[in-house]
Amino acid sequence: MVAPPAPHAPYTAATRHEDTFADVNAPRTKNYNLPCGPLEKHWLLTMPPSPLPADILASIDIIYRKRWQSLMAVDEMVESIVATLEKRNMLTDTYIIYTSDNGYHMGQFGLPYDKRQPYETDIRVPLLMTGPKIPPKTLVSAPVVLIDIAPTVLELAGLDIPAEVDGASVLSKLSHTAPIEERQILVEYWGEGTVETHNPECPWQKKDKLMLCTLDAGCHCQDAWNNTYNCVRHMANDLDMVYCQFKDNEHFIEAYDLSNDMYQIENVAYDLLPSIRAKYDLAITNLTECSGPTCRRIY
C-alpha cells in the first residue's frame, strides 16, 4: 500500500509544480456559495458569514490550485510504480486500486473548505482499478463503498471472505452488463468539537464546542460536537436517496433525491411520508448494528 498525504493540508506542491494550473479555480457548481435557510440544512451550515465574502472565495481558489499542484507528484508516483512493475514483467499479474478516504467541499453551501459533511462533495471518492481480470474501460454504475475493497482483495487472492465482513467483493460488478442491485449504505460521522478545540480569535465560546474555526475562513466553523450524523444511502436502478439524522438538540433530518437533485439543494426530509421516514429511521438503526451480508439489504 502507498498512501501519499497529498492533497492534504498544507497543500504543499513539489517546487517543479508550483506554477501549474495558474488559471484553475474551484468549480462554481449550483450549490457553490449557496446560503442555507434554517430548515434547508443543519445549523452548522447557517453560521455566518453566509454567503462567503469575495476574499474568502479567492482563498478557496488558491487552495484548490494548491491541491491540484500537490497531486502532480502523486501522478508521477503512480506512473513510476506502473513503469517499475512493467520493467519487472509484473504488470500483467498485478492489480492496482486507486482511491481516496474522503472528498472535500470548497465553497459549496457557503462552507469554506473541509471534509466533514454528509454531502457528495465530502463522501464521494474516485475508485479506479486495473488488473488481469478487469475488462478495459469498464464503467461500474452499481454502488461501491470503501468497505468493499477488503473482500475484493481477498477474492482476487483466492481467499475466503469472513462471514462478518460488511462489504462485498466488486468483482461480479466488473462488466458492462452487471445489474445494479438494491443496496442501503451507512454514512456516519462523529463531530470532534470539544472545549479544547476552541479558537479565541473567533467570537464563539468554549461551551459551544466548535472546531476548525479560523480567521482565514471568516470564523465559519467546519465542525462541532453535534456535527454528528448517521445517514442511509438507498440506491437501486431507479432510486438514489440519502436520508440523514443529526444528533443535535433539534433532531434535525435531511434527505435528498439525488436522481433529480445531484447538488443536494432541496431538503425533502420533511416532505416524506411518515411511513418512508420510519423505514429510513429503521434502516439507520439496523445499519449501525448489523454485521456481514445483512448490512447490504437492511429491510
From TrEMBL:
<dbReference type="GO" id="GO:0008449">
    <property type="term" value="F:N-acetylglucosamine-6-sulfatase activity"/>
</dbReference>
<feature type="domain" description="Sulfatase N-terminal">
    <location>
        <begin position="2"/>
        <end position="158"/>
    </location>
</feature>
<protein>
    <recommendedName>
        <fullName>Sulfatase N-terminal domain-containing protein</fullName>
    </recommendedName>
</protein>
<comment type="similarity">
    <text>Belongs to the sulfatase family.</text>
</comment>
<dbReference type="Pfam" id="PF00884">
    <property type="entry name" value="Sulfatase"/>
</dbReference>
<dbReference type="GO" id="GO:0005539">
    <property type="term" value="F:glycosaminoglycan binding"/>
</dbReference>
<dbReference type="InterPro" id="IPR017850">
    <property type="entry name" value="Alkaline_phosphatase_core_sf"/>
</dbReference>
<dbReference type="InterPro" id="IPR000917">
    <property type="entry name" value="Sulfatase_N"/>
</dbReference>
